[in-house]
Amino acid sequence: MHELSIVMSIVDIAREYAEREQATTVDEIEIDIGCLSTVEMQAFDAAWKQGVRNTVLDGALKTINRIQGEACCSRCDEIFPIDNAYDACPACGEHFIVITKGKELRVRSLAVSY
Amino acid sequence: MCATCGCDDTTHTHEHHKRTISVERDVLHENNLLAERNRGYFEAKNIFALNLVSSPGSGKTSLLERTLRDLKARLDFAVIEGDQQTTRDADRIHATGTKVVQINTGKGCHLDAGMIQNAIKGMKPADNSVLFIENVGNLVCPAMFDLGEQERVVIISVTEGDDKPLKYPDMFLSSTVCVINKIDLLPYVPFNMEQCRANATKVNPNLRFVELSCTSGEGLQDWYTWLQSKLPTPVTA
């Protein structure tokens, strides 16, 4: 359910940048959403449909980059892909890991026209 | 008529400019900025702020009631209550004689840093006090929203599954302390304490555990000891 707040924050960011650039329309938006971020994509897409209505993002093409989780083992420095926060290091079995990728939630770019 | 500007001159053209703007802005940037402001406010006023998170019914309000009653003679408390509707929790806290503000989020499933900023502006918690922020009962959404707290306490009760930390890892990953509540019910439920702690530790090896029962009082002293150890000026029992 927090997906709607996330969509509204994205709308705010797009509006701020579009206004700053004095653009008339936002044609495209590119967003990074890590696989370990707390975003459920189905809920996100549903929230998007409602949330962007009558905003600067209404009709904009959205591109989502899903970023695979990656962690670094605190014991043996192994860098490995993870699907869950509770995954262990495949090299030494340690759970003391630092998540290095997959928590992203950011607006990467906007394509605008004047 | 020109379709772009509506003027009668049909001989001119409008050039279409397209441009890609690099944004690279965290979606929660605004919330995180406000959270840092709250954190600075707490630090300046020497307020110890805790964010209590859990699923509904694991005993956040009961833990607060016990804590406030047992420690109010020694510590100054303030409470912010977050619920979708009603002031029922705030009424319970108010009955302990503690300063409390209720935030109703309506359809919202979590508190955010802006709500906390508004609440503290209104309630003006005292210097050197302990501020408990009881989040909306929800083990998913509040994990993403930093409120500016110093400690995030996740509460789980033994009537819930011991696999909850694996099913809802984000909350356990973002918390610093895990309170396991209702241990007086352990003889009656299939909850495996060792398993629960092992599961939570897999998600967050730094998590600290406190096992307690707000009903029997068992383990509360460990909670109070931890709480007092966190205060800038420890108060002795």
Please provide a written account of the structure:
The complex is a heterodimer of chains A (114) and B (237). By secondary structure, chain A is of the alpha+beta class. Chain A has 2 helices and 6 strands. In chain A, the strands form 2 sheets. Chain A has a 3-stranded mixed beta sheet with strand order 2-1-6, covered by helices on one side. In chain A, strands 4-3-5 form a 3-stranded antiparallel beta sheet, with no helix packed on it. In chain A, helix 2 (41-51) links the parallel strand 1 (25-34) and strand 2. The model of chain A has no long low-confidence stretch (mean pLDDT 95). Chain B is an alpha/beta fold. Chain B has a single domain (29-230), classed as 3-Layer(aba) Sandwich (Rossmann fold). Chain B contains 8 helices and 8 strands; from the N terminus they run E-H-E-H-E-H-E-H-E-E-H-H-E-H-E-H. A 7-stranded parallel beta sheet of chain B has the order 4-3-5-2-6-7-8, sandwiched between helices. In chain B, helix 1 (29-44) packs parallel to helix 4 (113-123). The mean pLDDT of chain B is 92. Chains A and B meet through helix 1, strand 1 and strand 6 of A and strand 1, helix 1, helix 6 and helix 7 of B. Strand 6 of chain A pairs antiparallel with strand 1 (18-26) of chain B.
